[in-house]
Every structure is written in structure tokens, then in C-alpha cells.
Design brief:
The protein contains six helices and no strands.
Length: about 140
């Protein structure tokens, strides 16, 4: 098993990246953050793969969570927490962690272990992400 470092900073980068900005920069930034974490963790590219896949499916997650608000590009994830934002955070974190742990173990007979680690890490990362969003949220003056 690989040493595990909680990847919530780059998950937040992927989710907090502006909706109407350049998608290529998001994919390149996700790749750079993932490869940097892989170099320090010596994890063979699983962080890079999970972050690039999350960045690639991000528009679909936004459409699922926000519906028409995403189509009109009026979404700001760092605003007050609503059920749509919670859905987006939980779904994105769960997908990211499932990809990460699935390719870390890469065995179907360990599916229960993969799901257990995914679930527990997703809860922890979700709490850390919420706290981080509340800390960096700009004040309305």
C-alpha cells in the first residue's frame, strides 16, 4: 500500500476554479498538482490520474448538481453552502477518492477495502473542504 496524503488542496483547486475560465488551464493545473503530489508521495501517477479525471468530468458534475444555473454560468462554489454545493462536493470527492484507491489497490477482491477507505476518506476530506471554504470565503462588504 502506498502512503496516503489527503489530497483536498488540489480537489478544492479543481472545484473552485472559475466556471467560465479556460478549461485547458484547469486540466494542465490539475495535471501539475497531481504530478507534484505523486513525486512527493512516490505513488506512481495515481494522484495525477484522479485529478485529471476529476477536472475532465467537472462540467458534468456541475450540470448534475446545479442544472440551469450552470448553463447560465452563474455558479460560485465559494458562496454560502447550499444543498447543490454539498452534492457537488460530496460527489466530486467520492469520485476522486474512488479512482485513487481503486488504482492504488487494483484488485477486485479488495473492493470492500476500497469502498471503506473511499467512504472514510471522503467524509474527512469533505469536512476539511467545508472548513477551508469557510475560512477563505471573501467577506461581503
Amino acid at each position: 500500500m502506498l502512503g496516503y496524503l489527503n489530497p483536498y488542496p488540489y480537489v478544492l483547486f479543481i472545484l473552485l476554479y472559475p466556471v467560465n475560465s479556460n478549461k485547458s488551464v484547469l486540466l494542465l493545473g490539475s495535471f501539475a498538482l497531481g504530478i507534484l503530489l505523486d513525486m512527493f508521495c512516490n505513488s506512481g501517477g495515481i494522484h495525477t490520474m484522479a485529478s485529471v479525471i476529476l477536472a475532465y468530468i467537472r462540467p458534468s458534475l456541475f450540470k448534475f448538481a446545479f442544472g440551469l444555473s450552470y448553463e447560465y454560468q452563474t455558479v460560485k462554489i465559494a458562496d454560502k453552502i447550499t444543498p447543490e454545493r454539498i452534492t457537488l462536493l460530496l460527489l466530486a470527492i467520492f469520485i476522486h477518492h474512488f479512482i485513487l484507491f481503486f488504482f492504488e489497490y487494483f484488485r477486485m477482491d479488495l473492493l470492500f477495502t476500497i469502498l471503506t477507505r473511499t467512504f472514510l476518506s471522503s467524509i474527512f476530506t469533505f469536512i476539511i473542504c467545508l472548513l477551508t471554504i469557510y475560512i477563505i470565503k471573501p467577506s461581503k462588504r
